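User: Design a sequence. Structure:
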């Protein structure tokens, strides 16, 4: 199913939510319906869409979501049969080991 990039980008967070999320670590969630998931994370949890990766960049597309100063804390991506996520790793505390993302 093709993603509607414009619709995903225009999903808005409502004013006056009864909670305030302050920080969340970087996570990627595989979802069955990208548009419905974006709607839930914006309207119910108060996230904002910060970027949308089209299907040409990521199989099935991906939506990066934020609620604070970070560019994104949550990425939503549809489950795509046969696609494997790259491995995640956390380096040990050592001056000789640098995480390429964190510097």
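Assistant: Done.
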């Amino acid at each position: 199913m093709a993603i509607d990039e414009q619709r995903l980008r225009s999903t808005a967070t409502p004013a006056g939510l009864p909670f305030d999320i302050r920080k969340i670590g970087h996570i990627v969630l595989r979802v069955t319906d990208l548009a419905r998931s974006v709607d839930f994370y914006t309207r119910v949890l108060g996230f904002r869409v910060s970027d949308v990766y089209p299907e040409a960049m990521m199989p099935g597309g991906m939506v990066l979501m934020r609620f604070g100063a970070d560019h994104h804390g949550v990425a939503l991506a549809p489950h795509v049969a046969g696609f494997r996520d790259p491995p995640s790793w956390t380096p040990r505390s050592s001056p000789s080991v640098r995480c390429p993302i964190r510097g």
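The longest helix spans residues 34-43. The CA atoms of residues 36 and 84 lie 23 Å apart.
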